[in-house]
From TrEMBL:
Keywords carried by this UniProt record: NAD, Oxidoreductase, Signal
Segments forming domain GFO/IDH/MocA-like oxidoreductase: 130-249
Family annotation (PANTHER family): BINDING ROSSMANN FOLD OXIDOREDUCTASE, PUTATIVE (AFU_ORTHOLOGUE AFUA_2G10240)-RELATED, NAD(P)-BINDING ROSSMANN-FOLD SUPERFAMILY PROTEIN-RELATED
Extent of the signal sequence: 1-17
Taxonomy, superkingdom: Bacteria
Top-level class of the enzyme under EC nomenclature: oxidoreductase
GO molecular function: inositol 2-dehydrogenase (NAD+) activity
Protein name: Myo-inositol 2-dehydrogenase/D-chiro-inositol 1-dehydrogenase
Family: Belongs to the Gfo/Idh/MocA family.
Amino acid sequence: MIRFALIGAGFIGTVHAANLAAHPGVDFRLVYDVDRQRAQTLAAAHGAAAATELEELFDPSLIDAVFIASSTDTHAGHLRRAAAVGIAALCEKPIDLDLERARETATFAQECGVPVMVDFNRRFDRDYGELKRLVDSGAIGTVELIQLTSRGPSMPPLSYVAVSGGQMRDQTVHFFDLVRWLSGLDPVEVFATGSALAEPAIADYDDVDTSAVTLRLPGGALVQIDSVRRTGYGYDERIEVMGSEGMVEARRHRTGAVSRYSGTSVVDDGLHSGWFERVQPTYAAALSAFVSALESGETPAPSLEDGLKAQAIAEAAVLSLRSGRMEPVKY
Protein backbone atom coordinates (compact mmCIF):
# COMPACT_ATOMS: atom_id res chain seq x y z
CA MET A 1 0.00 0.00 0.00
CA ILE A 2 1.11 3.55 -0.66
CA ARG A 3 1.61 5.47 2.59
CA PHE A 4 0.05 8.92 2.06
CA ALA A 5 0.11 12.23 3.84
CA LEU A 6 -2.24 15.11 3.02
CA ILE A 7 -1.21 18.76 3.25
CA GLY A 8 -4.25 21.03 3.55
CA ALA A 9 -7.53 20.47 5.36
CA GLY A 10 -9.67 23.10 3.66
CA PHE A 11 -12.56 22.35 1.31
CA ILE A 12 -10.56 20.54 -1.36
CA GLY A 13 -8.49 18.82 1.32
CA THR A 14 -11.66 17.29 2.76
CA VAL A 15 -12.51 15.94 -0.69
CA HIS A 16 -9.08 14.38 -1.09
CA ALA A 17 -9.11 13.01 2.47
CA ALA A 18 -12.31 11.07 1.81
CA ASN A 19 -10.87 9.63 -1.41
CA LEU A 20 -7.57 8.71 0.25
CA ALA A 21 -9.38 6.93 3.07
CA ALA A 22 -11.61 5.02 0.64
CA HIS A 23 -8.86 3.87 -1.74
CA PRO A 24 -7.87 0.22 -1.15
CA GLY A 25 -4.30 0.85 -2.25
CA VAL A 26 -3.71 3.75 0.15
CA ASP A 27 -2.56 3.77 3.75
CA PHE A 28 -3.78 7.23 4.75
CA ARG A 29 -1.48 8.20 7.61
CA LEU A 30 -1.14 11.92 8.22
CA VAL A 31 -2.92 15.25 7.76
CA TYR A 32 -1.27 18.63 8.19
CA ASP A 33 -2.82 22.08 8.12
CA VAL A 34 -1.73 25.42 9.53
CA ASP A 35 -5.01 25.26 11.45
CA ARG A 36 -4.24 22.38 13.80
CA GLN A 37 -7.82 21.92 14.95
CA ARG A 38 -8.98 21.61 11.38
CA ALA A 39 -6.28 19.01 10.69
CA GLN A 40 -7.23 17.04 13.81
CA THR A 41 -10.92 17.04 12.90
CA LEU A 42 -10.27 15.86 9.35
CA ALA A 43 -7.76 13.22 10.39
CA ALA A 44 -10.08 11.81 13.05
CA ALA A 45 -12.91 11.55 10.53
CA HIS A 46 -10.85 9.25 8.31
CA GLY A 47 -8.71 7.22 10.69
CA ALA A 48 -5.51 9.18 10.10
CA ALA A 49 -3.35 11.15 12.52
CA ALA A 50 -2.84 14.91 12.61
CA ALA A 51 0.77 15.99 12.23
CA THR A 52 1.83 18.68 14.66
CA GLU A 53 4.85 19.67 12.57
CA LEU A 54 5.16 19.81 8.80
CA GLU A 55 8.46 17.91 8.99
CA GLU A 56 6.58 14.74 9.92
CA LEU A 57 5.18 14.53 6.40
CA PHE A 58 8.59 14.49 4.75
CA ASP A 59 10.02 11.38 6.40
CA PRO A 60 10.49 8.74 3.66
CA SER A 61 10.67 6.00 6.27
CA LEU A 62 7.02 6.74 7.10
CA ILE A 63 5.54 8.36 3.99
CA ASP A 64 5.70 7.34 0.31
CA ALA A 65 3.62 10.15 -1.20
CA VAL A 66 2.16 13.52 -0.27
CA PHE A 67 -1.01 15.07 -1.61
CA ILE A 68 -0.41 18.84 -1.78
CA ALA A 69 -3.79 20.54 -1.34
CA SER A 70 -2.76 23.57 0.66
CA SER A 71 -2.95 27.22 -0.38
CA THR A 72 -1.53 27.99 -3.83
CA ASP A 73 1.41 30.00 -2.51
CA THR A 74 2.72 26.93 -0.64
CA HIS A 75 2.63 24.36 -3.47
CA ALA A 76 6.14 24.95 -4.80
CA GLY A 77 7.77 24.85 -1.37
CA HIS A 78 6.04 21.61 -0.40
CA LEU A 79 6.85 20.02 -3.74
CA ARG A 80 10.54 20.88 -3.39
CA ARG A 81 10.65 19.41 0.11
CA ALA A 82 9.03 16.18 -1.04
CA ALA A 83 11.32 15.85 -4.05
CA ALA A 84 14.43 16.51 -1.98
CA VAL A 85 13.79 13.45 0.18
CA GLY A 86 12.44 11.18 -2.57
CA ILE A 87 8.74 11.34 -1.73
CA ALA A 88 6.25 11.23 -4.61
CA ALA A 89 3.73 14.07 -4.90
CA LEU A 90 0.25 14.62 -6.24
CA CYS A 91 -0.08 18.39 -6.45
CA GLU A 92 -3.08 20.64 -6.94
CA LYS A 93 -2.61 23.14 -9.75
CA PRO A 94 -0.76 25.38 -10.20
CA ILE A 95 2.77 24.43 -9.17
CA ASP A 96 3.14 28.15 -8.45
CA LEU A 97 1.36 31.24 -9.76
CA ASP A 98 4.71 32.61 -10.92
CA LEU A 99 5.57 30.66 -14.06
CA GLU A 100 9.32 31.01 -13.66
CA ARG A 101 9.21 29.73 -10.09
CA ALA A 102 6.98 26.90 -11.26
CA ARG A 103 9.55 26.00 -13.92
CA GLU A 104 12.41 26.09 -11.42
CA THR A 105 10.48 23.86 -9.02
CA ALA A 106 9.53 21.41 -11.77
CA THR A 107 13.15 21.20 -12.92
CA PHE A 108 14.28 20.48 -9.36
CA ALA A 109 11.67 17.72 -8.91
CA GLN A 110 12.57 16.18 -12.26
CA GLU A 111 16.27 16.18 -11.36
CA CYS A 112 15.42 14.43 -8.09
CA GLY A 113 13.64 11.74 -10.10
CA VAL A 114 10.48 11.55 -7.98
CA PRO A 115 7.07 10.80 -9.51
CA VAL A 116 4.90 13.92 -9.58
CA MET A 117 1.40 14.40 -10.96
CA VAL A 118 -0.46 17.70 -11.38
CA ASP A 119 -4.12 17.27 -10.45
CA PHE A 120 -5.84 18.35 -13.67
CA ASN A 121 -8.75 16.15 -12.64
CA ARG A 122 -10.98 16.85 -15.64
CA ARG A 123 -8.83 14.52 -17.73
CA PHE A 124 -10.44 11.76 -15.69
CA ASP A 125 -14.02 12.66 -16.55
CA ARG A 126 -15.72 9.63 -18.11
CA ASP A 127 -17.19 11.57 -21.04
CA TYR A 128 -13.98 13.41 -21.79
CA GLY A 129 -12.12 10.13 -21.77
CA GLU A 130 -14.49 8.87 -24.46
CA LEU A 131 -13.91 12.05 -26.49
CA LYS A 132 -10.18 11.43 -26.24
CA ARG A 133 -10.57 7.81 -27.34
CA LEU A 134 -12.64 8.76 -30.38
CA VAL A 135 -10.33 11.59 -31.44
CA ASP A 136 -7.26 9.37 -31.06
CA SER A 137 -8.93 6.58 -33.05
CA GLY A 138 -9.32 8.84 -36.06
CA ALA A 139 -13.11 8.47 -35.97
CA ILE A 140 -13.62 12.15 -36.81
CA GLY A 141 -10.60 12.59 -39.04
CA THR A 142 -8.21 15.49 -38.50
CA VAL A 143 -9.18 17.88 -35.72
CA GLU A 144 -10.17 21.27 -37.12
CA LEU A 145 -12.21 23.01 -34.41
CA ILE A 146 -12.63 22.51 -30.67
CA GLN A 147 -15.20 24.39 -28.64
CA LEU A 148 -15.21 24.31 -24.84
CA THR A 149 -17.52 25.92 -22.30
CA SER A 150 -16.73 26.58 -18.64
CA ARG A 151 -19.54 28.47 -16.90
CA GLY A 152 -19.72 28.63 -13.13
CA PRO A 153 -23.00 29.22 -11.29
CA SER A 154 -21.89 32.06 -9.02
CA MET A 155 -19.09 34.51 -8.39
CA PRO A 156 -16.40 33.42 -5.95
CA PRO A 157 -15.66 35.85 -3.10
CA LEU A 158 -13.42 38.75 -4.07
CA SER A 159 -11.04 37.58 -1.34
CA TYR A 160 -10.58 34.42 -3.40
CA VAL A 161 -10.20 36.35 -6.65
CA ALA A 162 -7.42 38.38 -5.06
CA VAL A 163 -5.19 35.31 -4.60
CA SER A 164 -6.45 33.05 -7.42
CA GLY A 165 -4.33 34.45 -10.23
CA GLY A 166 -7.41 35.45 -12.22
CA GLN A 167 -9.82 33.66 -14.52
CA MET A 168 -7.23 32.51 -17.06
CA ARG A 169 -4.91 30.96 -14.46
CA ASP A 170 -7.60 29.65 -12.12
CA GLN A 171 -10.63 28.60 -14.19
CA THR A 172 -9.76 28.47 -17.88
CA VAL A 173 -6.40 26.77 -17.28
CA HIS A 174 -8.23 23.44 -16.84
CA PHE A 175 -9.52 23.80 -20.38
CA PHE A 176 -6.14 24.83 -21.76
CA ASP A 177 -4.93 21.49 -20.42
CA LEU A 178 -7.90 19.65 -21.94
CA VAL A 179 -7.17 21.22 -25.34
CA ARG A 180 -3.62 19.88 -25.29
CA TRP A 181 -4.73 16.48 -24.04
CA LEU A 182 -7.59 16.02 -26.51
CA SER A 183 -5.74 17.31 -29.56
CA GLY A 184 -2.25 16.08 -28.74
CA LEU A 185 -1.02 19.50 -29.86
CA ASP A 186 0.46 22.56 -28.18
CA PRO A 187 -1.33 25.82 -29.07
CA VAL A 188 0.99 28.33 -30.71
CA GLU A 189 -1.05 31.53 -30.35
CA VAL A 190 -3.82 32.84 -28.15
CA PHE A 191 -6.25 35.75 -28.27
CA ALA A 192 -8.32 36.54 -25.20
CA THR A 193 -10.95 39.15 -24.51
CA GLY A 194 -13.08 39.60 -21.42
CA SER A 195 -15.32 41.82 -19.34
CA ALA A 196 -16.37 42.33 -15.74
CA LEU A 197 -20.12 41.79 -16.10
CA ALA A 198 -21.20 39.68 -13.14
CA GLU A 199 -19.09 41.62 -10.64
CA PRO A 200 -17.73 45.00 -11.82
CA ALA A 201 -15.43 45.16 -8.77
CA ILE A 202 -13.43 42.26 -10.18
CA ALA A 203 -11.82 44.78 -12.55
CA ASP A 204 -10.08 46.26 -9.51
CA TYR A 205 -8.08 43.02 -9.40
CA ASP A 206 -7.12 43.31 -13.09
CA ASP A 207 -9.42 40.38 -13.80
CA VAL A 208 -12.56 39.49 -15.75
CA ASP A 209 -15.53 37.25 -15.02
CA THR A 210 -16.71 36.66 -18.59
CA SER A 211 -14.23 35.81 -21.33
CA ALA A 212 -13.75 34.32 -24.78
CA VAL A 213 -10.43 32.80 -25.83
CA THR A 214 -9.27 31.70 -29.28
CA LEU A 215 -6.29 29.39 -29.64
CA ARG A 216 -4.50 28.49 -32.86
CA LEU A 217 -3.03 24.99 -33.04
CA PRO A 218 -0.12 23.93 -35.26
CA GLY A 219 -1.50 23.40 -38.74
CA GLY A 220 -4.18 26.06 -38.30
CA ALA A 221 -6.90 24.24 -36.33
CA LEU A 222 -8.78 26.57 -33.98
CA VAL A 223 -10.05 26.37 -30.41
CA GLN A 224 -12.72 28.52 -28.76
CA ILE A 225 -13.22 28.62 -24.99
CA ASP A 226 -15.87 30.68 -23.24
CA SER A 227 -15.52 31.06 -19.47
CA VAL A 228 -18.09 32.62 -17.17
CA ARG A 229 -18.03 33.01 -13.40
CA ARG A 230 -21.82 33.44 -12.94
CA THR A 231 -24.59 31.88 -15.03
CA GLY A 232 -27.76 32.12 -12.97
CA TYR A 233 -28.85 28.68 -14.19
CA GLY A 234 -26.33 26.20 -12.76
CA TYR A 235 -22.93 24.80 -13.67
CA ASP A 236 -22.46 24.46 -17.42
CA GLU A 237 -19.46 22.58 -18.83
CA ARG A 238 -19.21 20.91 -22.26
CA ILE A 239 -16.83 20.14 -25.11
CA GLU A 240 -17.26 19.69 -28.85
CA VAL A 241 -14.52 18.46 -31.19
CA MET A 242 -15.10 18.79 -34.94
CA GLY A 243 -12.88 16.97 -37.40
CA SER A 244 -12.60 16.61 -41.14
CA GLU A 245 -14.88 13.54 -41.08
CA GLY A 246 -17.29 14.16 -38.22
CA MET A 247 -17.84 15.58 -34.77
CA VAL A 248 -17.97 14.33 -31.17
CA GLU A 249 -19.35 16.15 -28.16
CA ALA A 250 -19.67 15.79 -24.41
CA ARG A 251 -22.93 17.52 -23.56
CA ARG A 252 -24.10 19.37 -20.47
CA HIS A 253 -24.62 17.15 -17.43
CA ARG A 254 -28.11 17.42 -16.00
CA THR A 255 -29.08 16.30 -12.53
CA GLY A 256 -31.36 13.68 -14.08
CA ALA A 257 -32.74 12.38 -17.34
CA VAL A 258 -36.46 12.80 -16.71
CA SER A 259 -38.65 15.00 -18.92
CA ARG A 260 -42.10 16.03 -17.74
CA TYR A 261 -44.71 16.67 -20.46
CA SER A 262 -47.78 18.78 -19.72
CA GLY A 263 -49.94 20.40 -22.37
CA THR A 264 -47.63 22.29 -24.69
CA SER A 265 -44.72 22.35 -22.19
CA VAL A 266 -41.79 20.01 -21.60
CA VAL A 267 -39.84 20.45 -18.36
CA ASP A 268 -36.41 18.82 -18.10
CA ASP A 269 -34.12 18.34 -15.14
CA GLY A 270 -31.69 21.24 -14.75
CA LEU A 271 -27.93 21.50 -14.32
CA HIS A 272 -25.88 20.85 -11.22
CA SER A 273 -25.92 23.70 -8.73
CA GLY A 274 -22.13 23.96 -8.62
CA TRP A 275 -18.90 22.89 -10.32
CA PHE A 276 -18.03 20.41 -7.60
CA GLU A 277 -21.24 18.42 -8.01
CA ARG A 278 -20.43 18.07 -11.72
CA VAL A 279 -16.79 16.99 -11.42
CA GLN A 280 -16.70 15.22 -8.03
CA PRO A 281 -16.07 11.71 -9.43
CA THR A 282 -12.98 12.90 -11.29
CA TYR A 283 -11.06 13.52 -8.07
CA ALA A 284 -11.21 9.88 -7.00
CA ALA A 285 -10.38 8.78 -10.54
CA ALA A 286 -7.31 11.05 -10.61
CA LEU A 287 -6.09 9.66 -7.30
CA SER A 288 -6.55 6.10 -8.59
CA ALA A 289 -4.50 6.92 -11.68
CA PHE A 290 -1.69 8.31 -9.52
CA VAL A 291 -1.68 5.29 -7.20
CA SER A 292 -1.66 2.93 -10.17
CA ALA A 293 1.30 4.77 -11.68
CA LEU A 294 3.25 4.49 -8.42
CA GLU A 295 2.45 0.80 -8.11
CA SER A 296 3.45 0.02 -11.70
CA GLY A 297 6.45 2.33 -11.87
CA GLU A 298 4.95 4.27 -14.77
CA THR A 299 5.23 8.05 -15.12
CA PRO A 300 2.10 9.74 -13.73
CA ALA A 301 0.07 12.01 -15.98
CA PRO A 302 -0.78 14.88 -16.12
CA SER A 303 2.92 15.51 -15.62
CA LEU A 304 4.87 18.51 -14.43
CA GLU A 305 5.43 19.38 -18.09
CA ASP A 306 1.68 19.26 -18.68
CA GLY A 307 1.17 21.62 -15.76
CA LEU A 308 3.78 24.05 -17.04
CA LYS A 309 2.42 24.07 -20.59
CA ALA A 310 -1.15 24.76 -19.48
CA GLN A 311 0.19 27.56 -17.31
CA ALA A 312 2.22 28.99 -20.21
CA ILE A 313 -0.97 29.18 -22.28
CA ALA A 314 -2.71 30.92 -19.38
CA GLU A 315 0.11 33.47 -19.15
CA ALA A 316 -0.16 34.22 -22.85
CA ALA A 317 -3.94 34.60 -22.45
CA VAL A 318 -3.46 37.07 -19.59
CA LEU A 319 -1.03 39.05 -21.76
CA SER A 320 -3.55 39.05 -24.61
CA LEU A 321 -6.31 40.30 -22.31
CA ARG A 322 -4.10 43.29 -21.54
CA SER A 323 -2.62 43.92 -25.00
CA GLY A 324 -5.71 43.27 -27.10
CA ARG A 325 -3.56 41.30 -29.54
CA MET A 326 -2.96 37.68 -30.51
CA GLU A 327 0.02 36.58 -28.42
CA PRO A 328 2.48 33.72 -28.98
CA VAL A 329 2.61 30.97 -26.35
CA LYS A 330 6.11 30.67 -24.90
CA TYR A 331 6.67 27.21 -23.47
